[in-house]
Write a structure and sequence with these properties.
2 copies of one chain form a homodimer.
Chain A: E1 2-7, E2 11-18, E3 21-29, H1 35-49, E4 56-61, E5 64-66, E6 69-73, E7 78-82, H2 83-90, E8 95-100, H3 101-112, E9 118-124, E10 128-134, E11 137-138, H4 171-174, H5 176-185, H6 201-209, H7 213-236, E12 241-245, H8 253-266, E13 275-278, H9 285-291
Parallel strand pairs in A: 1-4, 4-8, 9-12, 12-13
Antiparallel strand pairs in A: 1-2, 2-3, 5-6, 6-7, 9-10, 10-11
Chain lengths: 294, 294
């Protein structure tokens, strides 16, 4: 049996996968202290109940993982968890693998998408992350930092302060947080029905779709930053296709079309019209991709 | 016998290599029309004269190569040369491989440098190129455009027009041409002994080393652009080491130290102090690296 583990703070989703599909799923409710113990017991119990063998367990981790060592999961508050030790104890005969969740999502899209030799996924959530895939393998890099494109310098116009300590990072404008920041910054410059105090990134994107002037202005700025970022990624590591995922990508075609417009404006001539697509995997993305890490 | 072919306009350098060293070398003088015919005959004749078999022939090409098809060599004026066809005719039993010269140079540095899992080389010549190596293999990308980092948007201050059609490209400021452009742009702002009409990039870098105010100002701008570019490459594809090569890198330590200063200023916190080194291979780089493409 092939298990894909999507690690969250207190809820861990585990998918039993076949043929790149989740055929069964279960949830482990746990605490920070017992997280991996509870997850592994859950997998062991599931296999026992279903008379299956545990062949593969893949972990998608919200944090930094290098060679199955979880260096840090900042939002959960765990550091230095050695997954090899954990797995050896609970399923000594299974193959295990792990990567961070942005890499896992990128692999998932590559696996379910049209066959490509390489792809780069950009995940637009609270922050901006990414993942680079060559021949259906995650390229994580020696510091597991490939895909930390949220911290690419891109915004020389505002140079907003980023949480990471730098200024002008892509995620200061292209994340959900960045979208609200831009909408607040330009609030008095455009006519809008948005509420300055309560608007969310989704509200801003919805407003753009409905023709709201502020929404459209922010959409344009976000798309320009992303189009430029993709043009830079393309010359750094040339790929067949870019995937745009994460919560912000729910904005859909209006965002995708605007990103494409700016990508083609800024792309090197040999790389115009590289495919840019919305991510296809929904909620199951984390589990499927984790299940196929190895 | 393992041959590395460094293709130039009218002179092609061929190295016979063993243990990552050039043990013999010969030059083929040719014309655009007869280039690959002359090169292959040269290899065949050399093997015959030395009673050797032709096991491997690697080609470093100044242009775009995809799967042994030379799409374009702009400075030579040849397009659509199928190296498989050429090689089949002259050495049907040899393995052949090819890549562009910037990728070849990057591989060469990775092979002779301290062992690394991945590296990115930046070549500072008339333009700026690059190459990305993982596990001693060139990552060229599906459009053979990985490493076209000369066309990464970096210079929002001047946004000089680039030959490629875009503005603000890295090579508009960090190439030999870019260095002279910057020196001319700021010529009246700094005290200098440089001649506005005749200075070369080497003159500007030499002046910087001698404390010339204009030279130092230009060096600082070039290093800032490169440090920023490396910080962007690092989050896009995290590597163990960056190599700085090409003619401009002859400026040496003064340039390297300035690039490191700006890299560490702009790098994502998890990637500060990644190794940045001057390229070690001299004139033989093209031949050695081509010889070890496969």
């Amino acid at each position: 049996m092939r298990f894909g583990v999507d690690v969250g703070g207190t809820t861990v989703k585990i998918g039993v996968c076949e043929d790149y599909k989740v055929v069964d799923t279960f949830v482990v409710k746990t605490t920070k202290e017992n997280l991996f113990k509870d997850v592994c017991e859950g997998v062991v119990n599931y296999a026992k109940e279903h008379n299956g063998t545990i062949d593969f367990v893949g972990f998608g981790i919200p944090g930094v993982v290098i060679d199955n060592l979880i260096v840090n999961m900042p939002n959960i508050g765990l550091t230095n968890v050695n997954l090899n030790d954990v797995a050896k104890k609970y399923f000594p005969n299974a193959k295990i693998a792990s990567t961070n969740d942005a890499n896992a999502a990128a692999l998932g899209e590559a696996l379910v998408g049209e066959k490509s030799s390489s792809s780069y996924m950009v995940t637009l959530g609270t922050g901006v992350g990414g993942g680079y895939i060559i021949d259906d393998k995650v390229i994580a890099g020696p510091h597991a930092a490939t895909g930390e494109i949220g911290h690419m310098y891109i915004d020389s116009k505002h140079e907003f302060q980023c949480n990471c300590g730098l200024k002008g990072c892509l995620e200061t404008v292209a994340s959900a947080t960045g979208i609200v920041r831009l909408a607040k910054t330009y609030y008095n410059d455009y006519k809008t029905k948005l509420s300055k105090d309560t608007m969310s990134a989704k509200d801003v994107m919805d407003a753009a779709r409905e023709g709201d002037a502020l929404g459209l202005a922010v959409l344009d700025m976000v798309a320009e930053a992303l189009g430029r970022a993709l043009s830079i990624i393309a010359v750094t590591c040339d790929v067949d296709v870019f995937y745009i995922g994460g919560g912000v990508s729910a904005a859909g075609k209006v965002l995708l079309d605007a990103i494409k417009k700016y990508y083609n404006k800024y792309a090197f001539y040999a790389l115009k019209n590289v495919r840019i697509e919305l991510a296809k995997l929904g909620n199951a993305a984390g589990m499927i991709s984790a299940a196929y890490l190895g």
